[in-house]
Design a protein that fits this description.
Helix content is 40%, strand content 17%. By secondary structure, it is α/β, with parallel strands linked by helices. It has a single domain, classed as Ribonuclease H-like superfamily/Ribonuclease H (Nucleotidyltransferase, domain 5). Strands 3-2-1-4-5 form a five-stranded mixed sheet. The longest helix has 19 residues. InterPro entries: RNaseH-like_sf, RNaseH_sf, Rv2179c-like.
């Protein structure tokens, strides 16, 4: 079982009507040196300028990105290459990140290598500190830049700190 921390950037609030613009992933292990980065062409004419602005790209730039089917296949291949056993999807906001990744995998590849579930780093931290008002973000080392690989790496660093600090039983293979 391998944990893969994922972060996505989009041009709107939901997949299908709007587009995932880019995403990053990092295999959670002691090195955090196995990463994936994808930039995807929009799949819709709809987009929210404020949402797209978070990614740092213009609409014109996104139109030159790779076809989503290619990016998702490349990501599936990366997961297969780097994951031992079932890959586990985890992110700091899995309600948002998961819906885009899951939708894109099923829409473009007709299967999701992560299966049917995801995990939420924020909820995990709230549980281990037993306080629903706490936030894990102070545990990041890598600056949160809205580049999805940076953000996924910072979140993976937080997970490793949680593992060490709270003796969290988690398999990181």
């Amino acid at each position: 079982m391998s944990y893969i921390m994922v972060d996505i950037e989009s041009d709107g609030p939901i997949p299908g009507d709007y587009s995932m613009i880019s995403f990053g992933a990092v295999l959670v292990d002691e090195h955090l040196d196995k990463t994936f980065y994808g930039q995807l062409q929009p799949i819709s004419e709809k987009w929210v300028p404020e949402a797209l602005a978070v990614s740092g790209f213009s609409r014109e730039e996104t139109l030159s990105f790779d076809a989503p089917q290619k990016v998702m296949q490349d990501f599936a291949n990366w997961i297969k290459e780097h994951s031992k056993g079932q890959a586990v999807f985890i992110s700091d906001n899995n309600g948002f990140d998961w819906m885009f990744i899951c939708w894109y995998f099923h829409h473009f590849l007709e299967k999701n290598p992560f299966g049917h579930s995801s995990q939420n780093l924020g909820s995990l931290y709230k549980g281990v500190v037993k306080d629903m008002f706490q936030n894990f973000k102070h545990l990041r080392v890598t600056k949160h830049t809205h580049h999805p690989v940076d953000d996924a790496k910072g979140n993976a660093e937080a997970l490793l700190t949680i593992k060490k600090t709270f003796d969290l039983k988690i398999s990181l293979k």
